[in-house]
Amino acid sequence: MAAHLTFPFSAVGTPEHAADLPKETDLVVLGGGVAGVCTALYAARRGLRVVLCEKGRIAAEQSGRNWGWIRAQGRDPAELPMMMEAHRLWPELVADAGEDIGLRTIGITYLAREEKDLARYEDWLEHARQHQLDSRMLSAAEVAEMIPGSTYAGGLHTPSDKKAEPWASVPALARLAAREGVVIREGCAVRAWETSGGAISSVVTEAGEIRCTALAICAGALSRLFLGRHGVRIPQLSVRASVAATQPLGGIHDGAASDGRTAFRPRGDGGYSIAPSAAHELFVGPDAFASLTYFIREFLSDPLNTGLRPLAPRGYPDGWATARAWAADAPTPFEAMRVLNPAPNRTRLEALRQRFSALFPNAGEVRLAAAWAGMIDVLPDVVPVIDALPVKGAFLATGLSGHGFGIGPAVGRVMADLVTGRDPGHDLTRFRFGRFADGTKLVPGPSL
Questions:
Q1: How far apart are the C-alpha atoms of 329 and 206, rounded to whole Å?
Q2: What is the 8-class DSSP label of residue 62?
């Protein structure tokens, strides 16, 4: 599976999907990440004519840059039912796609460095039990048996949690969607929506206008920028997260784990994907100031351990020079930066490499084979919006806050049912768009 080290976001050349755009369709999906691709796939399975437009390449941004964890463990309780559905959907999708994406049930463990970590895990375990999740506490001896040489106080373990290679997974799902009738066009930015009588009537892309009655916005870190152009405000910011892949190592642990500082999981090529467990960076720009009242509690409690960078780079979603308004017949910021490709924080990754080496001294020298970063779309309560917008026919899935890859198939299935007017099958109250304006207290739930 060494081919999984060929990251699509570093690739150049001819896009894989270059279908001609129709003049008319039922649904346009904006964004070729896991949420957008799965929304398009399930909407097609509901009988809709679907067009998916991606300004750059499929999975070239955060959907191809994440840890590859498919986890229920540690989630906000409101996400657990959808995540458990996603656990069921992933194997079905792999069978339908007919490709090896590295999907494996490996179990995920949260390791406790101190007794207070065990208390937090015990508190969250009550939510797992309510949903019949197979999570359980581990003693120090059990952790030492699982990870020889470790000296942790114990841990929380969910055997049913999985992993996959994200840069292989989402492109495979896109190929499946194309075979099932979704028209996919890479290198095609959506510039604007048009309305008639307060409802979506068409979408303007750089390749022309498409008449439609529904638009699903799954634009990740760029959602706020696109929505703002249309007068729809959402307090979403994006933070940088750095990740690395080691060269092949001796068997350390065949599952995924995190101790609150260092996260790791095995790869098909014999190495490990490693990342700082909770170390993100916010590039400060106009949106950060505009959203300060929403995020002040989070900045103080800092659930994502966010470091501040003084200036957002040029062209980034919250860049000081990034245009916030544009004409539908003119180039947009999305065309100016086809792929949001932040440089990784090499200093943090070197410190991470050293910590990982110290955790497993018998593994030999740890060398990095690759390093990268992505921009994670974050909302103040660290859960997404999955809802219809005030404009009839417009739907939004964003703010997945680093949780999106694993839960993506269920998000797509729910979005498809929202678009077609079906019962989504889950309580989406916590994920509603209106919570930012109706006085709801925006606080993160009991997640880990």
A1: 8
A2: G
